[in-house]
């Protein structure tokens, strides 16, 4: 891999010294808010303006109350540590500024009560496998040479009610947060593997299926909670299983690193990632066990092509072929709370939105059991951007006649 010159990749963001003259200028611009170790700002916009004038300082945020009110601190990493370590109550965030280089990181969360089927460690391990596959495609290296860069730090703030972890790869760096998000989206588009990270989320009328990976964090000037801190009003600090010190805090910060110790991945390299072939396997996050009751739980396996409803499976297989290609069911999920079957299809990629097969992105067929219709969605970025779903089509008459009524499902819950 050709390394990107650190001067063009990072600008001046890694300088650790701010000339006294600049500090005095900042005090004049933002007088009344400075201390010996940092500058304080009531708004993010004022803090960002100052940060642009003081490239040797980094930006942090602190919760002031549980309503979301924050103030912002601009300080060197070493000065921030001196402030942070003395706080008994910690509610701090790192501000990942728009054009600042940052590490690869993931924010995972879901409600435990809705997702008893999810294997938590498998979910975390699957992230590492996904990243490894992306690096192999970008860097064209043997797997053994990638191992030092696949080290990850897992910060946990889970409770009995909620699973919540941050996964940070300290040795993998991108030019900015937006490009980090693009890399992760590209990984999820390599195949239909995004289905391996699906969890249930309560909504007003039913359970929604969403990604356990929060993609909203890859936005402009994002506040990302740091090691040892909890949200105001909560007692769930991010922990890592060992005592916190300055070195460990720095290692877990998203924008802190030494250029010579990391792999630098630019935006153009992300386009090297190609769709995976259908033989690629990633551990599935759902338990591969039969339903404990008639229709009582989410049902899915990593290698099974069948659901609890074999007649519907057979019908789906009958509609995923044409003269060009014969498709197959990669896996199927049954969500009893919303009465939906989600079929992840391999090889067959016909999309009703574009009227042809996608070149690489896979499709999903969804069966709604309460209305007995099915429709198509897909993993193509343009189709996903408009949340495309095909017009619903009715299931065959013989399935309608032989299938249990909706009340049968409700009675079995």
Strand order of the largest sheet: 1-3-2-4-10
Query: Taking Cα atoms only, what radius of gyration do you get, to the nearest Å?
Result: 24 Å
Report the mean per-residue pLDDT as an integer: 79
**Multimeric state:** single chain
Q: Beta-strand level of the residues, as a percent range?
A: 15-25%
Distance between the termini: 55 Å
- What is the overall number of helices? 13
Extract low-pLDDT stretches.
Answer: 1-22, 25-33, 277-303, 405-413
| Approximate helicity band | 25-40%
The rough form would be described as: elongated
Which structural category fits the helices and strands? alpha+beta
- Main β-sheet, in a few words? 5 strands, antiparallel
Give the total of beta strands: 18
InterPro entries: AEP_C962R, PRIMPOL
Enzyme class: transferase
EC number: 2.7.7.102
GO cellular component, one term: nucleus
Task: Record the SSE blueprint.
Elements: H1 6-10, H2 20-29, E1 39-41, H3 44-53, E2 58-63, E3 70-75, H4 77-86, E4 92-96, E5 102-111, H5 120-139, H6 143-146, E6 153-156, E7 162-174, H7 177-189, E8 198-202, E9 207-211, E10 222-225, H8 246-252, E11 263-264, H9 267-270, H10 310-319, E12 328-335, E13 340-346, E14 350-351, E15 356-357, E16 363-368, E17 373-378, H11 381-385, E18 393-394, H12 397-402, H13 406-412
